[in-house]
Amino acid sequence: MNDSIIRNIVNNEHIMDKYTQMKRKHGNDMIILFRVGEYFETYFEDSRIVSVIFGLDRILLEKHFYYVIYATRIPEKELEYFRNTLYFRGYGTIISDRIRGNGVHKMHLK
């Protein structure tokens, strides 16, 4: 996906903005996992990678003329298994976990 399309997406979406910033900073070998309720979600290319490795379904989040956004969900209770498997497949992980109350994000790299 080209940068101009990503810029259009992230103008209205906080998570997509964080995703784009972290990908630019850490590169494509890092899978970014965002806490969403009792799950962790991956987006864009990360979603495809996680879906292929684990055989998980991708969920259609948004469909527009120029882009489609999919998410792949990982249950919170299985997070360590998924992180370890991704590590052995050559991917690092970043966890974006919102700290309740103040909107600050805490990042965990592995």
UniProtKB/TrEMBL annotation:
InterPro entries: DNA_mismatch_repair_MutS-lik_N, DNA_mismatch_repair_MutS_N. GO terms for molecular function: ATP binding; mismatched DNA binding. Signal peptide: none annotated. It comes from the Bacteria. SUPFAM superfamilies: DNA repair protein MutS, domain I. Gene3D superfamilies: DNA repair protein MutS, domain I. GO terms for biological process: mismatch repair. Residues 15-94 form the DNA mismatch repair protein MutS-like N-terminal domain. This is DNA mismatch repair protein MutS-like N-terminal domain-containing protein. It comes from Bacteroides oleiciplenus YIT 12058.
